[in-house]
Amino acid sequence: MVTLVTPAGSFGGPVRVAVNQSRALIERGHDVTVVAGTSGYRHPPTEQDGVPVRLFPARQAVPKTGFAGLTSPAMIRWFVSHRKNFDVVHVHLARDLVTMPMARLASVLGLGLVVQTHGMIDATDKLLARPLDAFFTRPILRRATAGLYLTEREHGDLVSVAGQQDSRLHWLTNGVPETAVDAAQRTTPPEVLFLARLQSRKRPLMFVAMARELLEQGMRARFTLVGPDEGEGAAVRGAIEASGHADSISWEGAASPDETLARMRRASVYVLPSVDEPYPMSVLEAMSVGLPVVVTDSCGLAPAISRSGSGIVVDHSHSALVDAVRRLTTDGEARADFGARAHDTIGKEFGMSAVATKLEQVYRDACTLRDD
């Protein structure tokens, strides 16, 4: 269960995680359905990447609150009437009015409840979070049969929000399917790709500024942003126009989730200048197709990237980003070496087989705890 599925993939990583996990479990013989709110489709799909999906209209119940204010009454009605069809409910939990009511309901109905929070449930003093945490988040975390976290920081946040230590919290990495590398699809001159939501934390404007400086230094490369507008679109468009390099810097708009890997295969380098990015699926997907990656040192994947030599980790400064991208675009041998190690790292550390095995154990334990 996940908050929102849209044609542009606007909810980002949690949807990709849910679909990847579900496909891996289906391949092992399990019966899995992804349930989510939806908007933007004329005719909502019934499957995504081979995974059955059941989508329900999502509406904005609380204005000007983004995803947090979404709700889906039709989903709740459907779940109540179909609850006996499921052994375990795995909720990709966020502070919103789609997943929170569903998780609370699953717990009240006595179903095995597994919650996975993707860094979205953090310790916060925000005014709107207080009543939500009191009524939904804290009871859900305390009553869930298992909770899944990515980083030690996220583990600490979950303990803090729940208000108690919990042995039912389990570490689970994000995984991506292994895929073939096809360097022949890559373009000349090299293309540097930003594929993410155009949101301030992702720092798309820094990507444009980096591209402008490198082009003004005479670099032959293309710089492309792909992703839906989440507040930075107008500023990005203006920065591209003001750069004087609109022929080499472009924003293509959003790509649907099933187009992501194909789009990445055409690029040469993947760059995500985000600050405090928990565990970005887009970086793992880029690595899976053999792209060297550039991330900041506050990214949850930075240690793995540094350790494996899958790319370059930089501080938050503009100059560090420029230097890293310059190296990867001008040194073809280094680019190929980083990319090969990125692809190998996915198979060794982030493959879906290990993720599916861990989920099967968590689900078995959830069913046992439910029945006790």
UniProtKB/TrEMBL annotation:
- Indicate the segments forming the Glycosyltransferase subfamily 4-like N-terminal domain, all copies: 12-175
* Organism superkingdom: Bacteria
InterPro entries associated with the record: Glyco_trans_1 (IPR001296), Glyco_trans_4-like_N (IPR028098)
Report the Gene3D superfamilies cross-referenced here.
Answer: Glycogen Phosphorylase B (3.40.50.2000)
GO terms assigned for molecular function: glycosyltransferase activity
Key words of the record: Glycosyltransferase, Transferase
Quote any Pfam family the record assigns: Glyco_trans_4_4
Where in the numbering of this chain does the Glycosyl transferase family domain appear? 185-342
Name of the featured protein: Glycosyl transferase family 1
What is the scientific name of the source organism? Rhodococcoides trifolii
